[in-house]
């Protein structure tokens, strides 16, 4: 995850054009993953993912000099925030008639639950565990759909995107302790829904 960003940022600050190009390439790859996870299905039918990625890159690197001077947060968190802002703007542009609240909330894509289940199924230590997870995919998908938006958000970030608690706290602009409690509560609700739907065992 942009593992080489820090040294590249130092070189960018010193005026190294080659480092800037390398950072843009790494950023594009990371943004593709973020947009895949975050882009709502209804927006995906009207806008290409590549357009969101390109617009986010353009906005990000138009402000890169200010960022490398201040470094208010880790670079990948800043990139992710910029992508989220671009998704919000695109959502407003294409769905002006919808009665949406003017905040940073963007509906999660329909395939979010599938991405979550895939990430969980890959964690099985042996083929038998992976098979069990595969057979339970539909239950987990339905249970995830029952969660409130903020619960879906934090479960997806932690379980599917692999973000740390500290990173989630930075993205949501809340204390790490609050982020941890929110994630724990979301998991409890998710496990409750999976049990109601007939999934036995420890669940997600």
Automatic annotation (TrEMBL):
Gene3D superfamilies: 1.10.1740.10, Winged helix-like DNA-binding domain superfamily/Winged helix DNA-binding domain. The keyword tRNA processing does not apply. Residues 138-190 form the RNA polymerase sigma factor 70 region 4 type domain. The keyword Transmembrane does not apply. GO terms for molecular function: DNA binding; sigma factor activity. Coiled coil: none annotated. Keywords: DNA-binding, Sigma factor, Transcription, Transcription regulation. Pfam families: Sigma70_r4_2 (PF08281). InterPro entries: RNA_pol_sigma-70-like (IPR039425), RNA_pol_sigma-70_dom (IPR014284), RNA_pol_sigma70_r4_t2 (IPR013249), RNA_pol_sigma_r2 (IPR013325), RNA_pol_sigma_r3/r4-like (IPR013324), WH-like_DNA-bd_sf (IPR036388). GO terms for biological process: DNA-templated transcription initiation. Belongs to the sigma-70 factor family. ECF subfamily. This is ECF RNA polymerase sigma-E factor. It comes from Kolteria novifilia. The gene is rpoE_2.
